[in-house]
Amino acid sequence: MLPLGGAAARNKGMALFPRKIGGRYATIARQDNENLYLIYSEDLRTWENGQIILRPRYPWEFFQIGNCGSPIELDEGWLLFTHGVGPVRRYSVGAVLLDKDDPSKVIARTSEPLLRPEPSEREGYVPNVVYTCGALRYDHSILLPYAVSDTYTCFAWIGIGALLAAMNG
What we know:
With 169 residues, the chain is mostly beta strands. It has one helix and 14 strands. The protein has a single domain (7-168), classed as Tachylectin-2, Chain A (5 Propeller), CATH 2.115.10. The strands form three sheets. Strands 5, 6, 7, 8, 9 and 14 form a six-stranded antiparallel sheet that branches. A four-stranded antiparallel sheet has the order 1-2-3-4, with no helix packed on it. Strands 10, 11, 12 and 13 form a four-stranded antiparallel sheet that branches.
């Protein structure tokens, strides 16, 4: 195995796009522990500094945002699930739609989280956390497995049309 190299490879949270974009490999990553970056590579091993595409905007993500797995290609663009960290280190899950040809362009995003820790889900090994490491597309729906307080796993289903309608530009 060969390690990843370059300035962007030193931080965790890199999520590859499932295909090349414009002839290059692409990833979403959190280089500075607060924002999300789009980073390109010519060889899949060297990842240099990227471009900020998402900054915390809403109260539920004010402290930091991160990706929740690789983007999912839709006809409308790239669907990226994100996690936001708000007050009391409360982790919630949201979503963003990126332009299909130029994923540095944000088309829309959720202003409210899709999933947040409910009162019954706030206790456990890591309290106040709902988190996912990826989602699956099935026909016109998304299956979203997620962990609660690092204690147990749940599953959520959402129609792609309903999800896109919940986003604003």
